[in-house]
Specification:
Elements (H helix, E strand, L loop, with lengths): L7 E4 L9 H15 L4 E4 L11 H14 L6 E4 L2 E3 L11 H13 L3 E4 L3 H13 L8 H5 L3 H9 L5 E4 L6 E5 L3 E5 L8 E3 L7 H11 L4 E5 L3 H14 L5 E5 L2 E2 L10 H12 L12 H9 L7 H11 L8 H6 L4 H10 L13 H7 L10 E2 L2 H14 L2 H15 L1 H6 L2 H11 L8 H4 L2 H4 L11 H8 L5 H13 L6 H14 L7 H12 L7 H8 L1 H19 L1
Parallel strand pairs: 1-2, 10-11, 12-13
Antiparallel strand pairs: 3-4, 5-6, 6-9, 7-8
Helix pairs in contact: 1-14, 7-8, 9-11, 18-25, 22-24, 22-26, 23-25, 24-25, 24-26
The chain binds one RNA strand of 78 nucleotides through α4, β8, α7, α8 and β13.
Length: 556
RNA sequence: GGCCUCAUCGUCUAGCCUGGCUUAGGACACCACCCUUUCAAGGUGGCUACAGGGGUUCAAAUCCCCUUGGGGUCACCA
């Protein structure tokens, strides 16, 4: 057995779905803990559940981790990360190793074959439940089967699992975050260590891998706390070393529910039900799929379906996965910072820090014991702050990269000069990178495609008062046409000059709003002189013309 | 329900280990006002918490016990 003296941590996700924020924080803490102490951070893919594993998902994980700035010394090879002497780092490729130890336990009489069917066990579980008792596997039934019978059944290929013969006695767990705990005797039953399909269960694979990979410190979510007892007894039976454990508090939704991948479907389903939909909205999914999904609380739409559904129902889906936050335009360093802050803090009222600081200062004694509710509003505030502190060049580069991935058609529609103006006008006010695109759709629209919202605000800006907004617009058109230098400052100068002569110097709003609505179709946009400058002179004039025309005919 | 575990503003948290420096600090949110060309952003000010009850002590948010409340877990999922 290879002994590695230095500190080694690991992150061991199962490749189902995307990396969500809870997993990301676990990875971040393990990474920072190792990095800050000259240790190694290992990434291992726990793909022993054949039903749930998919290659695509594990690549998604790798991409997400990279984006966050979390790199791994050992693990799957991806963009310069990974490799290592303790592979494979996919559990599905380590069956020989597990089997070796499995056999050892059976031979030593520390584990045994069991032939119960799922149906039989389900009945027992239900009975336990009805008696309000915790379910424990009854070893006596397995004991009643003679060794000869076991061999005979195995020979004829009867479906069997291997269960661990959990020793009697209380089990002590030491945890660097929660302290010591003792599970009373009988709390851990003879759990399955090899499934009927020949794959080890999570418990067994974890214990073997952590030993073989020389993992010294295990930081994982608190939901694993009870599992640790199983791992400890297995380690003892196999003569393995025991890593140091630290169980991290969970991350919850603001309403206190567990943050889950299913939250998106939950919201969609609820909205569909509230709206009493019986058929799928247009351009989403077909009717069969829709009714099946609506009726089954556990079914999930894929990303494209969910997005289409959200658009059709006019709701925003909550960000759950790291990729969702990336898509929404959060900066990776902000994600790391905020994730770390949910469950850990450096003290001294310090709450903004980078990953280097985290590595240097992360320690288990400051990890919170209680679950944190994930506050997206505070995250938004952090993101805004980070964006504002970015040099203009850096911000511009990030927006460009974001736009090219998530809004390619928008990027194609505008010129480099327009882009620069838009960035300049948006830098101080953007909470996310995506906001800049979502808030300025008017810009990506062709002059002839623009339509005007039929809303109270629009009507007020254009039709109310004497003279009305439309009347102002007619006058302003001439003013704009005469502007010599079409820049924010140049436009402002001309308009202010005209405003002064028209006695409107103090009421710029009466000018700005009709203009804004005229050229964007809505009442919200960047400051008006920026808006006009970005749009360009000919587009601005054309849109004003169309607006005047549109509302002239609308009125009659 | 059994077992394990946790408990400071609405939220994330500082203080707790090593009781007095705390009329409990910061941040986000919220409220008010200011600025203002919409939405934001920005500025100023304000509101808000030691779950409850017993101990120990000259002194408790800090130590102990109970209650209450929360969470985790009880799979051939990880």
């Amino acid at each position: 057995m290879t002994h590695t003296p230095s500190l080694r941590t690991r992150f061991a996700p199962s490749p189902s779905g995307h990396l969500h924020v809870g997993g990301a924080r676990t990875a971040l803490f393990n990474w920072a803990f190792a990095r800050g102490r000259g240790g190694k951070f290992i990434l291992r893919i726990e793909d022993t559940d054949q039903k749930r594993s998919s290659d695509a998902a594990s690549v998604g994980f790798l991409k997400d981790l990279k984006w966050l700035g979390i790199d791994w010394n050992e693990g799957p090879e991806f963009e310069g990360c990974g490799g290592g002497d303790f592979g494979s780092y996919f559990q599905s490729e380590r069956l020989d190793m597990y089997n070796k130890f499995l056999e050892q336990l059976v031979q030593q009489g520390k584990a045994y074959y069991a032939f119960d069917t799922t149906a039989e066990l389900d009945v027992e579980r239900k009975e336990s439940k009805s008696r309000n008792e915790a379910y424990r596997y009854d070893r006596s039934r397995a004991d009643a089967i003679s060794p000869e019978q076991v061999q005979a059944w195995l020979k004829e290929g009867k479906s069997a699992v291997i269960r661990f013969k959990t020793p009697a006695g209380a089990i002590a767990i030491h945890d660097e975050i929660l302290g010591d705990a003792t599970l009373p005797a009988g709390e851990v039953d003879d759990f399955v260590i090899r499934k009927a399909d020949g794959f080890p269960t999570y418990h067994f694979a974890v214990v073997v891998d952590d030993e073989l990979m020389g993992v010294t410190t295990v930081l994982r979510a608190q939901e694993h706390f009870n599992n640790t007892a199983k791992h400890v007894v297995l380690q003892d039976a196999l003569g393995f070393r025991r890593p140091t454990y630290g169980h991290l508090p969970l991350i919850f939704n603001p309403d206190g529910s567990k943050m889950s991948k299913r939250d998106k479907d939950k919201l969609l389903r609820k909205t569909a039900q509230d709206k009493k939909l019986t058929a799928p909205p247009a351009n989403t999914v077909d009717a069969t799929r829709f009714s099946a999904w609506l009726g089954d609380k556990n079914s999930q739409l894929d990303f494209a379906e969910a997005t289409a559904m959200a658009t059709a129902l006019n709701i925003e889906l909550p960000e759950i996965n790291v990729d969702d936050f990336r898509r929404s335009g959060y900066l990776p360093q902000v994600m790391c910072n905020f994730l770390a802050l949910n469950g850990w803090g450096p003290g001294n009222d310090l709450e903004k820090f980078d990953n280097a600081f985290l590595c240097a200062n992360f320690a288990l004694d400051r990890v919170q014991k209680t679950a944190a509710k994930f506050d997206r509003v505070k995250l938004l505030a952090f993101n805004l702050d980070a964006i504002q502190k970015l040099p203009r060049e850096a911000f511009s580069g990030l927006v460009k990269a974001h736009g090219e991935i998530y809004h390619p058609e928008f990027m194609k529609k505008i010129t480099a000069a327009q882009f620069d103006l838009l960035v300049a006008a948006s830098h101080e006010r953007s909470k996310t990178l995506d906001e800049l695109f979502r808030g300025n759709r008017w810009l990506a629209l062709g002059d002839e495609e623009l339509t005007w919202e039929k809303s109270k605000q629009v009507e007020k800006a254009l039709l109310a008062g004497t003279p009305s907004g439309l009347d102002r617009l007619k006058e302003l058109r001439g003013v704009l046409e005469a502007v010599a230098t079409w820049t924010p400052a140049g436009i402002e100068e001309s308009i202010r000059q005209w405003a002064t002569t028209a006695g409107l110097a103090e009421q710029i709003g009466q000018i700005a709003q009709p203009l804004r609505v005229g050229v964007t179709g809505s009442t919200v946009s960047p400051p008006i002189f920026d808006t006009l400058a970005i749009l360009g002179k000919s587009s601005s004039l054309r849109r004003i013309d169309r607006c005047l025309q549109d509302f002239a005919t609308a009125k009659t």
